[in-house]
Amino acid sequence: MPLMLQRMAAAVAAGLLAVATGTQAAAPVPPRLTVAPGGHYLLAGGKPFFWMGDTGWLLLSRLDRAETERYLAMRERQGFNVVQVMILHTPQMTTVAGVPALEGDDPARPHVTPGADPARPQQYDFWDHLDWVVGRAAAHGIHVALVPAWGSLADGGELNERNAEGYGRFLARRYRHHANIVWLNGGDTHADAHTRMWDLLGTAIKRDDPDHLMTFHPIGRTDSAWQFHDAPWLDFNMIQSGHRSYAQEGPNARGEDNWHYIAEDWRRRPAKPVIDGEPSYENIPHGLHGADAPRWTAADVRRYAWWAVMAGAFGHTYGENNVMQMLRPGRDKPSFAADRRWSEMLAAPGAGQMRRLRTLIESRPMLERVPDQSLILDNGVRYDRILASRGAGYAFAYSYTGRPFSMRLGTIAGASVTASWYSPRDGRSVAIGTIANSGSHRFQPPGTPSPGNDWVLVLDDATRSRGSAL
To answer: What's the average model confidence in pLDDT over 280-294?
Structure first.
């Protein structure tokens, strides 16, 4: 073999060994997240932070180390900076090698084995593996939002008022020194069931780990604020707008209109940041359980994301049905009619399009942005709803269908504004021109109005104009 090929092969082998053993060179660790002054947004190391999350719920139990590295590297390239992960999905939670997380299915008795050999990762216990995952996420600039236990453990009695504090203490003391941690108390569960137990768990974690942010991950179409807004351990609110369609919810539907929840939480006092932590996933059936039901598409996941952020969310969490459960067909029992290998679906269209949201929000002063529906003079309902927000010298208005709408001007700085359209699908800009910043103006997005022909109107003070959306 030529010397150059030998060197290339050796480099590849060394890289794979490093991934398997956890011996990669240290990388800068993402700074801890804190709540920004004003109470609506987050900071990372004192700088504005836009949460672009992905749901990798079953990562710990279904991926080995090389697969985990592949997942994290891909999500980093796509612009994600948070991954939501379950610690205990069931009391029988194990690594992909079958090493259990708990002794006797008891959260009060984590299965910890000291003295693991870094060169033999198959000997690592569940918690060693989680340590490694958190470290590798940090190397990719990713924060790990950890759910201590799924709600089913509370319903089944394995997690209860007797052992919640001990389990919380174990987690806090083990992970409080990792800067890239966020805690998601709860776990797809009713906040008004086992409320005292969840409060004990949150309090215990916060007592020994006061410097990491924490929220509560509620069941679909509910909000952490409804039970826990004033809890001392709750730093930000999370909604789960859920997976039902307008037709499945009836006349009082709110799930698809996720902006309702965000707008309500924006007005709460004391002010706390809010995010939609589980909207409808790409490629999951409407309502979850009907295999023959229509499936949510990339256009739908874009709509959830843009509506939430325009309404005041500090970021957004995306999900893809096959990826969130790390499905391996033929080996794993699929949930919610998943049918594709997780690795194939990392490149689902919606996943690639989420970065367009982060890019636009980060391009303007983030901390001064406020939702302002008074900008839209002829708003519609459901898919024809226009969501708007603004800063001192800029304004955004998102139209999911690309229907024409009229906008009130004069609310941002400048005698005139430059206007352009920004595409959430591919990030391209279409210039409109410069117009007087007074009165009202009717705007016509490109293309024919229809669901998924979504565009963002971008207005900038002409004296500070960029000439395009970006």
So the answer is: 95
If asked whether residues 32 and 147 sit together in one domain, one would say yes
> How far is residue 205's CA from residue 207's CA, in Å, rounded to a whole number?
6
Tens digits of per-residue pLDDT, 313-366? 999 999 999 999 999 999 999 999 999 999 999 999 999 999 999 999 999 999
Average pLDDT, the chain: 92
Beta strands across the sheet bearing 274-276: 222-223, 237-240, 274-276
What CATH number does the domain containing 100 carry?
3.20.20.80
- The vertex-82 CA angle with 117 and 283, nearest 5°, equals 105
Q: Is 99 helix (H, G, I), strand (E, B) or coil?
A: coil
pLDDT of 161: 98
Band the pLDDT of 47: cuts 50, 70, 90. very high
Inside any domain, residue 3 = no
pLDDT > 90? residue 135: yes
The answer on 263 and 233 residing in a single domain is yes
Quick one: which of 447, 397, 401 has its CA closest to 417?
397
Q: What is the mean pLDDT of residues 66-81?
A: 98
Minimal CA–CA distance to 145: which of 224, 203, 204, 215? 215
In order of 72, 262, 300, 407, 467, the CA distances from 381 in angstroms are 38, 16, 16, 16, 32
Domain that holds residue 431: 372-464
* Same domain as 202, residue 301: yes
Residues 384 and 351 reside in one and the same domain: no
Residues 221 and 169 reside in one and the same domain: yes
> Which amino acid type is present at position 470?
L
Rounded CA separation 237/231 (Å): 11
- Give the number of domains in the chain: 2
Residue 372 near residue 409 (C-beta atoms within 8 A):
no
